[in-house]
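Changelog entry

Holo records now carry the ligand SMILES as an explicit input line rather than a separate metadata file. Below, a converted record for 3-hydroxy-3-methylglutaryl-coenzyme A, shown in the new format.
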Amino acid sequence: MAFPEYVRLVEVGARDGLQNEPNPVSTETKLELIDRLGAAGISYIEAASFVSPKWVPQMGDAREVMTGIQRRPGITYAALTPNIKGLEGALETGVQEVAVFGAASESFTQKNINCSIAESLERFAPVIEMAQKAGVPVRGYVSTVLGCPYEGEIAPQKVAEVSKTLFEMGCYEISLGDTIGVGTPLKAKRMLEAVNRHIPMEKLAAHFHDTYGQALANLYAVLEEGISVVDSSVAGLGGCPYAKGASGNVASEDVVYLLHGLGIKTNINLQLLAETGDWITRSINRPNRSKVGVAFMAGKASS
Ligand SMILES: CC(C)(COP(=O)([O-])OP(=O)([O-])OC[C@H]1O[C@@H](n2cnc3c(N)ncnc32)[C@H](O)[C@@H]1OP(=O)([O-])[O-])[C@@H](O)C(=O)NCCC(=O)NCCSC(=O)C[C@@](C)(O)CC(=O)[O-]
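Structure line, unchanged by the conversion:
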């Protein structure tokens, strides 16, 4: 199969990227990050998460973030909403899209959202229904698609089952999360094939973490299969609070560099994106995990 002509990046740096930061990140910093990402040409920004602040304190300012964004035309600003309480909060801020998040592993679902897979799906049904009534599209995440921190291997069939259910419940797109970054290209392809038997490729997204340094290789593999939506995080920020040792998402700068090298359009200004990665990592005192970002900034410093 040929590569797609255009890939939409779903930038999750402000949410997945920051949710696990041990030190508080100010609302002001989050808002500047979101604004810079928009200026760099990102068209979809996952900006916040309406979850319990007891579970994920770093996302406790979701309302302030969502209402503080200077919205740019053509950009979708989205938020995670695990239940009706979260959705109500998000809708009050005029959120444009929301996402529910399940997993293909029972243990991870328990640790992450305190219920079984079946209960999570029951809980999502009214969330999806209410969002749709409000005219807000719902994205569905499925975590642990290539491995679970508690259960190890996850059967592609299980990933397909949960994905299919979320899709049939009304999620317009299913994002397949390698939460702990253990996947390899062949595994990623096999998992995608299993899901694609039930869901069209254009309704699927790849959400790969880079813990084992395989994320770009895995992305290349699924791009070959026709994936055209990729979740990533500027400077490779992030990790999941309920997946110990999981490092950040694949870095947005690295993904954009790969895509442009393959002749795939993104409408993203890589220089501005690299500057954003440099700025946020300095602001929160983190290493920049984007090789492309570091190289770009070194080139700029020496020129
Ligand atoms: C889902 C719950 C809330 C269930 O948590 P629970 O304790 O079972 O919920 P509950 O309904 O019993 O409520 C307990 C308390 O939380 C409050 N509460 C309840 N809901 C909300 C809400 N929406 N917003 C604010 N507060 C809320 C509720 O009001 C109550 O407060 P109290 O009466 O004790 O003061 C909890 O488990 C939770 O918040 N989990 C969040 C976990 C999380 O955010 N994980 C990271 C995101 S997933 C991820 O990163 C993976 C992904 C998506 O990136 C893809 C990948 O990489 O694989």
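Spot-checked after migration. Residues 8-302 form a domain with the TIM Barrel fold (CATH 3.20.20.70). DSSP finds eleven helices and eight strands in the chain.
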